[in-house]
Amino acid sequence: MYEGISAYEKASHLFTVHALTDFDIIEYCLKPLGNNYSMLGDYTSAANIVKGYLYLAGQQGNDEQRISAYINLSIIYHDTGQYQQAIQLLQQALTMSPVPAEKKMLMYYNLARNYVDLRELAKARRYVNLAASIYQQHLRSDALPTLVHVYTLHAAISLAEGQPTNALTWIEKAQTLAVSNAPLFKNRELAKLVNTHAGILMIGGRDHEAILRYHQALTWLIPQYDPMKNELPDAAAFYAENAIKETLDGMAEAYAKLNDPVKSLACYKLWFKAEDLLRDTYNYEEAKLTQQAENRNVTEKALELLYGLLEKTKDSRYAIEAFQFAERTKAVTLRESSEDRYWRQRQEQDTLVKTQNQLRYKQAMLASEIVTEQLKQGQADVVYIHQRIAQQTTNAVALKEIAQALEEKYPQRKLTDSFQPQVMRNLQRRLQTDRATVVEFFFGTRALYIFRVDQHSVQMSKVDASEMLKQNVLALRDFFANASAINNQIEQYKGLAFEIARALHLVEPFATSNIILVPDGVLSLIPFDALLYEKASGVTYENFPWLLRRYTIAYQPSALIYANAVSPPVALDKKSLLGVFPVFHNSALQLDYSIKEAGDIQNQTDGLFLFNEAATQQAFLKQAGQFRIIHLSTHASSGIDAAPPSIMFSDSTLYLPRIYGLNLKADLLVLSACETGVGVLVKGEGAISLAHGFQFSGIRNAIFSLWKVNDYSTAVLMGNFYRQYFASGNKAESLRLARQDYLNDETIDNTRKSPYYWAGFVYYGSLETQPVDTAFSQLLFLSLAAVLLSIFAIIYVLYKRRHKVGA
Fold it and tell me: What span, in angstroms and rounded, lies between the C-alpha atoms of 563 and 16?
């Protein structure tokens, strides 16, 4: 299938470059290309292709291809969980006239599929019966595959109605029809039917039979596979195919039900091998994020098995393996980008790498232009948007070709695999150097798993009441919605802050005072510094037992990102700071304390500061690559409706898609603005926020906010932070001390010492201490030495005079 995609991509490119007109590009290229993308799970590429030929068919007045586009786009919406959008498209297509019988049959079938997943079973059965009736009226052989799908859907409806026996009858009917007309079906289609059959058998408790069915499915998919020789297939025979993953997932569940966790886990490991091959074919990060959510479901099942083995045997190897599984789904897109970026920086003179960098930047620019135009809603230029999507598609194909060429040129270049033994060794060596402990969470749908990793061991624990914990975390998050919430309900806050810390196993002291914290899901929405390690009494915030008082916390998207980001500390250069302060004077957006914030920083550095009208987006983009520290004090948004996260400059707004295309090398980014760490939560990846975008663009260490932070307290905190940082060179400890200085400040009243004011900023990055620029210290030493010499000289002269007089 992947080879077919490459051929179709090249054909589409040639058609566009040579402006051909005597070839039906929709029927013979774009439709199969979009369908193949969908089958691989690359739904972003598929949607772009389908929308492209929907537009083209409209331009040509080709209603038949428009109907095909509506059907195929509805399939993409269904497979990505957008059931209502899929139904709307299909119903719109049904209003077109005339609609060929086979197309109408497909529409009814796909409507039924969506209603099954919405659990509207009466509607589903109505439409599936309509689809079957069309076949009975026309009896066309080319509609047989759709009839098989109809029978399969009858089986799904029967299962949803609690009738597994009826479901089995329907799926066997579908299989019989398919096998007797095998030339009309691809091997993957026959394998998927067998997988469905096996799944129904498992529901009926016939697990041994199910495994035999899964073996049969693998023989359809992998010609080299022989279950008589080896029950499990050889990963070397895998290729990019979703059905292989589906089969392995089913086999794993069957083995688990038969109380064979070892074979089940082996299937899950093979599942990830198959997933890697699919991931390599995807053109867009969005498709990889969608895939990542699916990976989480598999990982949770593996963790459940491993925790059971750990409890049963007390063998710590199971805790290590579980941690490796958890890391397999932690910020994979960001980690992949990070490793790839640092590799490209070392190969920046390679012409392929240069071209790749240019194309990636163009892709980000196009994405930004599309978003900006779409925000105009009814006034948006549809032709303009279509043209840019077409350019994106062309660039994506070119990027894929470059990636293949680089892989051939540098075959040793691979993404770090968490299952490799050296990965754990590297991580634990890093923890020994930093005198730190990793605390990593996996927030599943059934349980929360907690990993504690230090230089010697890996410990695993489980919290079963995960839904209650999730509600508590969200309730705590609500306390930060406004400045008065905590002050008005201080006892409730204290109770939640302690209960959450207790549930997360953070109450008992750690062996180290430094913590690398890898949050997950809703846990990324709260500041752990503002939790309590024991119950607090009274109302004086300064005296509360905050985790802040006990630990220095540095967050990381994944433990592997932390372990891999090893480079010699660069001396802290106080002058290499870019400060951007739009301020927005005389407007509703005016930031009253931004000038104070800038002044406190200017007192400690001679960096470049852009104020007011000079703080433009263009000026920032021009200067950002030249500084080691970037400080942005402005307004930001976490994204509203269709608008992505954004950050404001004096002249314009910078949207997240363009940030992804930047190439920044700053050692520290401080986003002193509201909600810069907030965005749509994607399972495994975290919040798709401004902070995520800047991390993706090359920033390793960043400070950003979790809510709409207070203007005054931000100015004080930032002043405190830079004073500590320029003195010590340690970012994580400096933010901690800045908060403690704020809490200990006697000029700040108690109500403003609520964590709403001081806990809004979190630090993602390393624990390293940079050598502090000694130029100032040397000057101070020389000055003091000169003063002391002068004093000694004066004393000496006075002494000589005195003795001379005495003589």
Answer: 45
- How big is the chain, counted in residues? 807
Q: Reply yes or no on whether the pLDDT at 188 is more than 50.
A: yes
Token couple for 654 = 């910078």
Query: Nearest Cα to 13, choosing from 35, 40, 37, 33?
Result: 33
CB atoms within 10 A of CB 772: 18
Q: Is the Cβ–Cβ distance between 180 and 174 less than 8 Å? A: no
Alpha helices per DSSP H over 418-558:
421-434, 466-478, 485-488, 490-503, 547-550
Instruction: Look at strands 577-581 and 608-611 and give their pairing.
Output: parallel
Q: Within 603-667, where are the H helices?
A: 617-623, 656-659
CA distances from 257 to 162, 196, 254, 462, 524 (A): 20, 17, 5, 21, 34
What is the rounded CA–CA span in Å between residue 206 and residue 416? 39
d(C-alpha 426, C-alpha 560), whole Å? 9
| Cβ neighbours for 420, distance < 8 A, ≥ 6 positions apart | none
User: Tokens 């798993």 appear where?
Assistant: 449
With a CB cutoff of 8 Å and minimum separation 6, the contacts of 307 are 318, 322, 449, 460, 462
8 A C-beta contact, residue 607 and residue 573: no
Task: State yes or no: pLDDT of 792 exceeds 80.
Answer: no
φ, ψ for residue 578 (rounded to 5)?
-105, 120
| pLDDT (tens digit per residue) in 260-293 | 999 999 999 999 999 999 988 888 888 888 888 7
724: nearest Cα among 740, 712, 735? 735
Structure tokens belonging to residue 136: 């009975």
For residue 463, which phi and psi values (nearest 5 degrees)?
-115, 115
SS3 category, 503: helix
Which residue stretches of 222-349 are H helix?
242-257, 261-279, 285-313, 316-327, 332-346
Only one residue has tokens 């914990």, namely 469
Query: Which residue stretches of 328-456 are H helix?
Result: 332-346, 351-374, 382-409, 421-434
CB atoms within 10 A of CB 492: 14
Calpha distance 537→551 (Å, rounded)? 21
Beta bridge partners of 672: 633
Q: Where does the pLDDT of residue 342 fall: very low under 50, low under 70, confident under 90, or very high at 90 and above?
A: confident
For residue 615, the tally of other CB atoms under 10 A from its CB is 24
Confidence of residue 569 (pLDDT cuts 50, 70, 90): confident
Kind and range of the H or E run holding 645: none
Q: Which positions ≥6 away from 69 have C-beta within 8 Å?
A: 50, 51, 53, 54, 57
In the structure encoding, which two tokens stand for residue 309, read together? 């083995």
Question: Is the peptide bond prior to 519 cis by the omega test (within 30 degrees of 0)?
Answer: no
Q: Which residues contact 281 (CB under 8 A, 6 or more apart)?
A: 2, 5, 40, 42, 240, 400
d(CA 30, CA 25): 6
- Cα–Cα distance, 643 to 372 (Å, whole number): 8
Task: Give me the phi and psi of 186, to 5 degrees please.
Answer: -80, 160
Q: How does DSSP classify residue 567?
A: -
Residue 773 has phi, psi (to 5 degrees) of -55, 120
**Would you give the DSSP letter of residue 807?**
-
Q: What is the dihedral of CA 518, 520, 525, 531, to 10 degrees?
A: -60
Q: Is the pLDDT of residue 105 over 80?
A: yes
Bond preceding residue 98 cis, omega within 30 of 0: yes
CB 313 within 8 A of CB 407: no
For 552, list phi and psi in degrees, rounded to 5: -95, 120
Measuring CA to CA, which residue among 334, 368, 366 is closest to residue 657?
A: 368
Structure tokens at 585: 């004077």
Determine the longest span between alpha carbons in the chain, in angstroms. Answer: 136
- Rounded CA-CA distance 171/153 in Å is 9
